Amino acid sequence: MARLPLEGITVLDFTNMLAGPYCTRLLADLGALVLKVEPPAGDHNRARRPVREGHSSFFGHINAGKKSIVLDLKSKDGLGAALALAAQADVVIENWRPGVAKRLGVGYDAVARLRPDTIYCSISGFGQSGPKSMRPAYAPIIHAASGYDLAQMTYQGGTAEKPANSAIFIADVMGGLAGFGAIQTALFDRAVSGRGHYIDVALLDAMLNLLIFELQEEQAPSPAPLRTYQPLRTTDGFVVVAPTSQRNFETLAKVLDHPEWISDPRFVHTKIREEHWDILMRLIEEWTTERTSAACEDALLAAAVPCTRYLRVGEAMADPQVLARGSFSTVTDPAGSYLVPNAPFRFAGFDAPVSPDVPGLGADTASVLAGVGVSTETAQN
Hints:
Elements: E1 10-13, H1 19-29, E2 33-38, E3 51-52, E4 55-56, H2 57-63, E5 67-70, H3 76-88, E6 91-94, H4 100-104, H5 108-114, E7 119-124, H6 139-145, H7 148-154, H8 170-193, E8 197-202, H9 203-208, H10 212-219, E9 232-233, E10 238-241, H11 246-255, H12 270-275, H13 277-288, H14 293-302, E11 307-309, H15 313-317, H16 320-325, E12 328-333, E13 336-341, H17 365-370, H18 376-379
Parallel strand pairs: 1-2, 1-6, 2-5, 6-7, 7-8
Antiparallel strand pairs: 3-4, 9-10, 10-11, 12-13
Helix pairs in contact: 1-8
Protein name: CoA transferase
Keywords: Transferase
GO molecular function: CoA-transferase activity
């Protein structure tokens, strides 16, 4: 097997929740030795649903491939063990509220005194400075505070009475990816210059980076109606169609047996078509409502018109494209095995799948601490 890019890099992982653990799992996928520090009671995600026979697959999803170390950071010896590990780590990452790492004694300044070239990454909701930096923040809070939720509400055509319920943690995944990318950049610069770096990742900034059109529209509003991509009803579900280019539109008009749309003053070119987008979508839906989702997809894709039916998560997991790319790996804990998606990128010449092993609580404490001359009993008490 080819050498993984991050082999030889040690990461001391003080993270919990989702953004930090997702970031460090990606580092582990690429070969880094990730030492996950847990309190004596364990990461609270070990009890997060879905739980099978006492083991959380949610926890396993974002922590596979790491080593688990139990330390009581509030004790003198536990802190000493953590700092001994930090002195040997290339990367230290935490996602507590700003100031907590410093209060515990494992903040950037304490670590940099031991290893000046350390790469230290802090992930938080609002960032390490500013008037909102100390606010408690989870992904749904950031979705609302960034403008994302109300922007989504405006795209519902006036039918929504309030922002949609939230359960998919976009900010956490985006923040984790931001941390992952920034750490690679810092490691590269250290290899060139020898410098260490402190990285401040804010979930708020990650969400703002999603709102490319919305941020610019806010600064220079356009009076024209906005083109939105809408679910179109079929006999057994929904499809989405995206005839964005002139060629796509003209091809779609022919497939739907409405060539007259091509010369219709409402649709004749892209700018005019966008002003009448809702009308166009309603006309397309008259066609889709008479067909199954699969039939709509087949007919439009055969003509190279962008279209897909809406899939349930389980259907997407079994999709031939996902299977062909090998998008999932199997991981195993004492309750059995389950699928976890690989990192969202591929390298030519080698694979970087998720490690199949989910660490048991404190399973690696003794062996890891022995490497820095600390006894397990001392560090945990």
